[in-house]
């Protein structure tokens, strides 16, 4: 009887436990993806994102409150033993299909659009599904870099755009590159990667953008 009582108490406690904070869960996801960023670096972006989404939503009267809260909640409740699995995929799908397009169209400043584009880009690149495996292989085959190097370069470029409030649709270029990599299209992958390099602070910069004061991920 005591065993059943103890099990029942533990079960209730597990069901009512508070989820991780959004920024804490994002940090775990970033580490699981293999990127070497500190908790403070992750917090700079992940604490800004929910505020940004809500600001644009209320400013433009988009009525996305439920979807934004659902996305944040889905990220917070992702199990720690499957950080980039099914629930991460569902959260990214919700953001990419129903939240990102409307928020991006209503962003009034360049840095806002870039911050949202960074989120969308990393949600795709961090997936563990077939999409991820194909992109990982084609990065090495077509571009002669690892997927981690590509992710770091993309983070650095987005950091520059966010800091300098550059009013240019960077997501258009990163999305085209990812689609070319996923579609096994070497010609367009190389062409879009060259476009991406032209947006770099310098043509040889590779690696975490600590000097820029912000990093990018989910």
What does this structure look like?
This protein is mostly helical and 218 residues long. The protein has one domain. It is 70% helix and 0% strand. α5 packs antiparallel against α6. The chain is globular. Keywords: Signal.
Distinctive features:
mainly alpha; 0% strand; signal; disordered C terminus
Q: Strands, helices and their partners?
A:
Layout (H helix, E strand, L loop, with lengths): L1 H15 L5 H11 L6 H8 L1 H12 L5 H12 L9 H21 L3 H16 L4 H14 L3 H18 L5 H13 L3 H13 L20
Helix pairs in contact: 2-3, 2-5, 5-6, 6-7, 7-9, 7-10, 10-11
Keywords: Signal
Question: Can I get a quick summary?
Answer:
The protein has 218 residues and is mostly helical. It has helices at 2-16, 22-32, 39-46, 48-59, 65-76, 86-106, 110-125, 130-143, 147-164, 170-182, 186-198.
SSE pattern: HHHHHHHHHHH
Helix/strand class? mainly alpha
Question: Could you report the average pLDDT, rounded to the nearest whole number?
Answer: 85
Cα gyration radius (Å):
19 Å
Task: Tell me the number of helical segments per DSSP (H or I, 4 or more residues long).
Answer: 11
Strand content: under 5%
Can you count the beta strands?
A: 0
């Amino acid at each position: 009887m005591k065993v059943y009582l103890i099990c029942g108490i533990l079960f209730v406690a597990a069901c009512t436990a508070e989820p991780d904070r959004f920024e804490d869960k994002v940090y775990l996801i970033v580490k699981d993806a293999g990127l070497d960023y500190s908790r403070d670096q992750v917090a700079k972006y992940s604490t800004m994102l929910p505020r940004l989404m809500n600001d644009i939503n209320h400013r433009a009267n988009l009525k996305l409150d439920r979807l934004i809260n659902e996305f944040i909640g889905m990220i917070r409740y992702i199990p720690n033993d499957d950080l980039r699995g099914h629930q991460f995929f569902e959260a990214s799908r919700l953001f990419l299909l129903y939240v990102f397009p409307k928020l991006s169209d209503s962003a009034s400043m360049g840095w806002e659009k870039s911050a949202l584009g960074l989120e969308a880009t990393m949600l795709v690149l961090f997936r563990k599904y077939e999409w991820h495996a194909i992109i990982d292989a084609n990065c090495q085959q077509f571009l002669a870099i690892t997927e981690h190097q590509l992710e770091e370069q993309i983070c650095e470029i987005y950091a520059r755009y966010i800091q300098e409030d550059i009013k240019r649709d960077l997501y258009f270029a990163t999305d085209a590159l990812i689609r070319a990599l996923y579609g096994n299209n070497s010609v367009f992958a190389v062409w879009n990667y060259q476009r991406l390099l032209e947006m770099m602070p310098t043509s040889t910069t590779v690696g975490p953008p600590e000097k820029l004061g912000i990093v990018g991920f989910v």
